[in-house]
Every structure is written in structure tokens, then in C-alpha cells.
């Protein structure tokens, strides 16, 4: 047996959570279809028949279900918890139960997916509950499935069967016209999305201002503000470099590295770049490997730079001068107007005469990007600007709003990572660049949060 013999699972939160622990949401592989899993999925999807799919994906249906916590007798027994050396007294056991299940009901989002091929045959079906993938099934005849032999099928079938009454209860509330009001009123904040004005957060938590500055001095902030307000941060208002070389790029990198306190002594210009940058240089230095291998170029030759620049394979990260994750690195792009002008000519937005006239003024300039690394990004920008180089910084208005606390901070559900959440927030709040989790009993400014309404469930 997959489970302990004699275990009788009930429709209570502790048992649902115990079953969910058999699944690992980090596994993205699907398992082959079989009759038991299809039947378990179908039982749930049949109940969801009256529910309209999500606006953003017509193959997905989602609804909140509530599971009672049960009584303390339904919790792991006092004897078991003593055996696990987690508690010593019954009072500790009771407090643990109240801590794990403080409310009468626990909430879980149920998501069901049914995807079809072009010939209308079923291609994929899946169920997730509480952010765990319970069923993830492909009907395609594939030779390899990453979790074959490890898929907790028994737990999936058991869980889908167990929650059916709760799913039906939510659909019945929706049909009675009370479901959406209940969700809006009682859905726990841990699952909700909201915003708070950065200025309000700073009033309650002054240390948040220091975090937003990220090590930048007040003088640097004011210098940055002066440049942005002046309007100079505009491709049309900065100069161009006609004859650009690799060493021009490497020297700009050195200026930036010195501004952020990197030790630049003892390095040649290309070695300094390779030491501190990402290193995937697309053959620029001749020091790369694999896709970035190449003979390198003459670092003082404008023609060599042009040839490399316009024939790069696109598989590297030559501009990533401060490495990081997908959103936590700093780029020092080298831009050339020819890219945009070629596109304008190709799409008929300008004629050949306009193209030739504008190409006479075209050339290279720098663009700094790193909204999640404001110290490095702003320091690079200020240093290159002070050196007289043609440079802009991307998302300047958003950075300035962060420093002046005129923007909003996004509150995201606890199961969301605090990154890549921009799409969760309406345009009326502007561009939100920082995301956090909140805790009702810890954050003094909790009552100042503006909670966003949940997407309403709708009947067909």
C-alpha cells in the first residue's frame, strides 16, 4: 500500500495537507495518462462544468475551496507528536494545533486545466491544489517522463476524491450568488494581492528608505534627480561615438567598476571586463568557451568592432557587466542607431532619403539597465555621464519614484516569489518595481494596505 494501512482520510485541513506533502511543485514533468488519473480528474472537472474559464486562459478553471480544520482530535495525536519529540506537554500540543490551524477553515485554490490539440483531441489535463501540482498528465505518446516510477498516483486519486464535496460546495455558493462576496470578505490576506504607498511604508519603517537607496548617498540621489529632471536622459539629446572600439567599451566598464568600488588594479582592460562581467562575451575577447568561443578582435579597431557588433550570434551576455539572476544583474548596453533606422526603413516608416540623412548623425551610445540593482546601475550612469560619455539609464522615472517614495510597492501572495509580479497590478498604480510579503501581526503598516479585488468567478 502507498499509505499506512488503516489510515482513513477525512475532509479536514490536516489530512488534505498531509496528502499535499506527497507532491513537489518544483517538478514540471508530466506523467503518462491512465484510467485512474483520468477518472479522478474528470470527477473534479465535471463539478466545475458551470464555471467559466479564466479570462487570461480559456483552458483553465479556478475556484477557491474551504476545508474545515476539524477538531484537535483530528490533528496528529499527542502521543505521535511526543514520539517525534516536537512537544512535551498537552498544552504545547494544543498550542501547536492552534498555530498551524488558527481559523475554522483553511483556504485552497483549486485549478483545473484541460488542453486540446488542433484536432480537438485531449492533449493534457492537470489539477493543482494549494499551489501543488496534484495531477499533471500528458496524453501524448512520449518515450520519457521525468517522474515516471515516482509519481504519487495513489495520493492524487485519494486527494481528488476527498475534496469533491468542498468543490461542489463552492460551485453551489456561486450558483446561489454568494461565493464572490464570501471570497472578497474572508479570503486570508496570505493569498491576496495589494499595494501600499512607499511613502507610507517609510513612515512606519524608516529602515525601508535605506534599503531603497541601496547604498547610494544622498548626494548621488540628488545628482541623479538633477540629471533626470533636466531631460538629458534621452537618446535624442545625448551625443554619439562614430568610431567605436572594444577598448572604448572596456574603458566605460572600468569607469563603472571604479564607481561601485571594485578593485581595478593589476588588470588589463579586457581582463578587467572578463573578471567582473558575466563572461559570456560572444567571442569579443577571445577568452570565452563554447558558444562564446572566438579569436577575439583588435581592441583598437573600429572596423573590427563594427563587424563583431553587427554579426554577434546572440547567444551570450556581452553587456551583463554586473552578473546576477534574471532580474538582478546590471547591463551596460552599447547601442547603435542603425538598428532602429534599419527597422524604420524596412517597415516603410521612413524613406531612403530620411534614412541616409539620419545615418549621417548615427553612432554608438551607452544604455545602463538594472532596476533591481539601483546602487550599481545609478553609479554606472552617474560615472559615465560625469566622464562625458553619451549614456542613458533605462526606467529612470521608476528609479526616481522609488527614491522619492512617490510610487507603490506591490503586496503579493505568500506562495508567489517577490519578483516578476508586474502583471498582477493594474496600470492605474503605475509601474511597480518592488514586491514584498506582509504579515499581519508583524507589520505596523498592515492596515494601510489597499487590497485589490479578486477576479470574480462567473457561471457559464
Overall description:
With 460 residues, the chain is α+β, with helices and mostly antiparallel strands. Among the domains are: 141 residues, no CATH class; 151 residues, no CATH class. It has 17 helices and 13 strands. The radius of gyration is 29 Å and the shape is elongated. About 2% of the residues have low confidence.
Summarize the structure in short:
By secondary structure, the chain is α+β, with helices and mostly antiparallel strands. The chain has helices spanning 13-20, 35-47, 78-83, 90-100, 153-162, 164-176, 179-186, 198-204, 207-213, 218-230, 246-259, 269-276, 302-310, 337-346, 352-359, 374-386, 396-404, and strands spanning 31-32, 60-68, 105-116, 122-129, 132-138, 194-197, 320-322, 330-336, 364-369, 391-393, 408-411, 435-436, 450-451.
